[in-house]
Design brief:
386 residues, five-stranded parallel β-sheet, six-stranded antiparallel β-sheet
Length: 386
């Protein structure tokens, strides 16, 4: 998900086989990891690298389009082993290990179109190899600096574009060496002619969607703390609301909760995802989410709002706020009991959602302003819109 206003859409998942056995690594590093600075990051990642045992098979396959570790098959049996488990050690998230003037050079592993033919626009799932040097937590973002110079500042590089990370800290390869992004290609159409105007297309989203395996990419970050997944209470309730590529951080949450075998963490609460997209072909990671629904019916709920295929109770288009209203009594009760609620997507989603929540609160005889203030005070309210 991009935090620029031009990058927004939806995706469906692509299944491409299971390489778990090839991607498990053995680590013997016992020292604790610190994320306080880039230098400390470099020291612990270098130490880990000396102790890591990798397979030549995995390395040979790393930069091929056939290696896309987002397969639903990975959830078909027991949970997936992850490494290095030292990524669980730090008490605070890594922040700004690499900055715009000193960015990290990563490599593209794969770029996959992940929407069907009837989806408006194109969305890609992009896997990036950072070789363990740019660790992050679920809910954080990477900055991407596209190649070329800034047209508004000749001689200077482009500005950083932020994208929410769509994988867990272990990446789609489960080895702590990759990160994934969910990117909508931003294309501009002239309102008068209806034709595409490439000069006004999104620079970074098109660069990412056009990338090839092995291409270099300049990364900054990681950044952000507002969307971090609270894990002190393994039985907590997490209500996740997204439009389009705003589902990116939730994919990371859900893989951590339901797909990965994370040491000393067993989720026993409720994760409830509300996803708003245009149509069925626009659904994001639907196979993954549907598998969780089948395997963990007591811990996962999944509600979709398809604006071009469904009608709300008033006969209008079905948007995500209509689904929220449908379950409003239950949502309010969960919030009263300490549930966390997250919002991610275009900033235009929030006014409609806020209006719905305010109306429901008033119908319940509550003050929405007072309730919202309390949710923020209790750190139950998490918003990242763009």
């Amino acid at each position: 998900m991009s935090h620029s206003a031009v990058s927004q859409a939806a995706a469906v998942s692509v299944s491409v086989g299971n390489e778990r056995s090839l991607r498990r690594s053995v680590f013997k590093q016992s020292n604790s990891i610190s994320f306080n600075s880039k230098s400390s990051s470099s020291s612990w990642t270098s130490s880990l690298a000396l102790n890591q045992k990798t397979t030549s098979i995995r390395d040979a396959k790393r930069y091929t389009n056939t290696t896309v570790c987002m397969s639903v098959q990975q959830t078909s049996s027991s949970k997936v082993l992850v490494s290095p488990i030292e990524l669980e050690d730090p008490k605070e998230p890594p922040l700004n290990l690499y900055k715009p003037k000193d960015s990290y050079t990563a490599k593209i592993v794969s770029v996959e179109r992940v929407v069907g033919p009837k989806a408006p626009g194109e969305t890609c799932h992009i896997v990036i190899d950072h070789d363990g040097n740019l660790p992050y937590w679920e809910g954080q973002s990477y900055g991407v600096i596209p190649p070329g110079e800034n047209p508004k500042k000749p001689g200077a590089p482009h500005n950083v574009r932020l994208y929410s990370i769509a994988s867990t800290r272990y990446g789609d390869s489960f080895d702590g060496k990759t990160a994934s992004l969910c990117v909508r290609r931003a294309v501009y159409y002239d309102p008068e002619t209806g034709k595409e105007d490439p000069s006004k297309n999104g620079i970074c989203s098109n660069f990412l969607c056009d990338s090839k395996p092995g291409d270099k990419i300049q990364i900054t970050g990681p950044s952000g703390k507002v969307m971090l997944l609270p894990e002190k209470d393994p039985n907590a309730t997490h209500i996740m609301i997204a439009t389009g590529t705003g589902v990116a951080p939730y994919r990371g949450y859900l893989r951590r909760l339901f797909m990965e075998n994370v040491p000393n963490y067993k989720f026993g609460g409720l994760a409830w995802l509300f996803l708003g997209v245009a149509n069925t072909d626009s659904l994001l990671y639907d196979d993954e989410f549907s598998k969780y629904l089948k395997d963990h019916p007591e811990n996962f709920r999944f509600d979709k709002a398809l604006s071009r295929e469904e009608k709300n109770k008033k006969g209008g288009k079905m948007y995500v706020q209509d689904k929220i209203e449908e379950y409003s009594d239950e949502i309010f009760k969960l919030l009263d009991n300490g549930a966390h609620i997250y919002f991610c997507g275009l900033k235009g989603m929030m006014p409609g959602i806020q209006d719905t929540l305010k109306r429901v609160a008033e119908e319940r005889g509550e003050s929405w302003d007072l309730k919202l203030s309390q949710l923020r005070k209790n750190k139950q309210w998490h918003v990242e819109v763009y």
